[in-house]
Design brief:
- This protein is an alpha/beta fold and about 260 residues long.
- The protein is built from 11 helices and 8 strands.
- The longest helix has 19 residues.
- The structure holds 2-phosphoglycolic acid.
- 2-phosphoglycolic acid binds next to β8.
Length: about 260
């Protein structure tokens, strides 16, 4: 399974920041890391970023509407993202679930739109601190996968991003053992629902991934990539994560 290292820029990035995309794409083209590299900038930058990236790295969106087109002021369809050069879309991020009231049903409808359009759907799930404290992490992940990932999704169309809410932007991460537990559980649910496709679906970890912990996290069984917020904004930070992963995989000295 090919590792996916994805950057989520959230609501950060003006035209000047396209220089970071150029720098990441150039580094990836030069070093050819054994991973798929994706940056999801704000929608305003997707077309320019995709042109600039020129397939050296993939460009994605951070959300889409479930409908193809219509009277939905301010929304963007999966078709529009695709038309702008995106090949993936983040769906159901906790900032959208919490800040925009997105339910599992809404996220599933958006995932169907991504599927219809040929965008990789990166479907986010994750528990809050209090759910974790109450021992509900596994059940929350099960419920969110059941509700947010439509039937018939294939491994090529889908990645699951497990992002504990309390780890996002906080500098705190679960222990390797905790991540292994949750990701093993997620794998079980995916296999239960999707059989061999579920076995091949990538499960990303997200929440305070940075150069100093990336290798340890990416080495955990059933961690097939990372969704990275803060540390994806500067090419130097993001490149360091990619380099450390590639060197660690090769068993060589870490840069
Ligand atoms: P973070 O964000 O890496 O800044 O914690 C991750 C995310 O929200 O996808």
């Amino acid at each position: 399974m090919r590792t996916l290292i994805a950057g989520n820029w959230k609501m950060h990035g003006l035209i000047a920041q396209l220089a970071e995309i150029e720098s990441i794409a150039a580094a990836v083209a030069a070093s050819r890391p054994p991973a798929d590299i994706l940056i999801c900038p704000p929608a305003t930058l997707i077309a320019r970023a995709a042109q600039l990236a020129d397939r050296r790295i993939a460009i994605g969106g951070q959300d889409c509407h479930s409908e193809t087109a219509g009277a939905f002021t301010g929304d963007l369809s999966a078709e529009m993202l695709r038309d702008s050069g995106a090949s993936a879309v983040i769906l159901g991020h906790s900032e959208r679930r919490q800040g925009h009231g997105e339910t599992d049903v809404i996220v599933a409808a958006k995932a169907n739109a991504a599927r219809r359009t040929g965008l990789l759907a990166i479907i986010c799930i994750g528990e809050t601190q209090s759910q974790r404290g109450d021992g509900q992490t596994l059940q929350v992940c099960r419920d969110q996968i059941t509700g947010s990932v439509p039937e018939r999704m294939t491994a090529a169309e889908t990645a699951i991003a497990h992002e504990p809410l309390w780890a996002i932007g906080t500098g705190h991460t679960p222990t390797a053992g905790e991540i292994a537990d949750v990701h093993g559980h997620i794998r079980g649910i995916l296999v239960e629902r999707f059989g061999s496709e579920g076995k091949a679906m990538r499960i990303l970890y997200g929440g305070s991934v940075k150069a100093s912990n990336a290798l340890q996290i990416l080495a955990i069984p059933d961690v097939n990539g990372a969704l990275i917020g803060g540390a994806s904004l500067k090419s130097a930070d993001f490149d360091a994560i990619i380099r450390i992963f590639a060197a660690g995989l090769a068993g060589g000295p870490l840069p």
